[in-house]
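Progress note, project year one: complex with manganese (II) ion.
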Amino acid sequence: MELQRAHIEQLKTWLGERPMKIVTVSHTNPDGDAIGSSLAWAELLRAMGHTVTSIVPNRHPYFLNWMPHIKDLVIFKFDSERALEAIREADMIFCLDFNALSRLEILTDALSENTHARRVLIDHHLSPEEGFDLLFSYPEASSTCFLVYEIIEAMQGVGAITKEMAELLYVGMMTDTGNFAFSFLTPELFRAVAVLLERGIVIPDIHNNVYNAYTAGRARLFGYVINRKMELIHGGRVAYMSLNEQEMRRFGFQQGDSEGFVNYPLTIKKMKMSAMFIEQNGFIRISLRSRGKVDVNLFARKYFNGGGHKNAAGGKSFDPMELTLRRYEEAVEEFAAEGGLG
Ligand code: 5GP
Ligand code: MN
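Model obtained:
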């Protein structure tokens, strides 16, 4: 991954003009990469003398509560006045870890309250939408945190990275690569991790904080989903699971509890694609994962009004669960018939 020098220079010029009011925003249901990249970038901007407000549409999962500076996050759903004021006054708005304003959901309209701010996208999803003044769009970056690391290195050198920033950046690098198991695992990424280690991060502690801090209810829910809800179709090469609101209540579901479930069917030999359907506030949120050449970004775009990455994508359905699942089964057959499953 080679950052475009001219973009770095442009960013340096804008950030060097004067102390500014800056807002960072990231996507709905923010994950480790969204929050890690937002907060680390905000810390760098503060160190440069800017005033920064980091906004997310809704709350992060509870197992990220330990992250440095997480209390600085303004959660639009609970604190919309503060978020709106910061957006209205912002000279610059950084959009991190998403490629379309619609991914902000309840926060989407708020961004149109400010039309004078410079808008910069820092993201690693495919096909970013238009309307940004500066674009750091690198789909070959394994995480937005890695991209932020590269930008900081190019702008100021790694000496600007504090231990807390290093912890934040590591979270996104770790979670978006499935603990360094998925694609885009480049030598540069591991060099970046080596630098973060030199800044003092303790990898086993971060790993425990993120992956070993769930509730017992979540463990039981996982057992239930795999045992009772996993359906195998297309000769056992495609899987899907679903959870409705009643099932989630039964296991004391908290936001983030289903994170990672969708990956599990891919541990089955020859499995090509897996989907998770979760009922949430009157619609169904879909998570898709695949192996190798199977492109769930395409699948999500074509059938479920979504997108993401080649091997990890998502979408939505506004139909009832049963109908959504039938639509999925039909879509899989059509996708397979067109060669989508290889
Ligand atoms: P997850 O399954 O972890 O929620 O999402 C997997 C990937 O797909 C993430 O990179 C996420 O940003 C993307 N994604 C999830 N839902 C949507 C959606 O509704 N629209 C688009 N464009 N991308 C999504
Ligand atoms: Mn990401």
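The radius of gyration is 20 Å.
The chain has a mean pLDDT of 97.
No further modelling is planned for this target in the current period.
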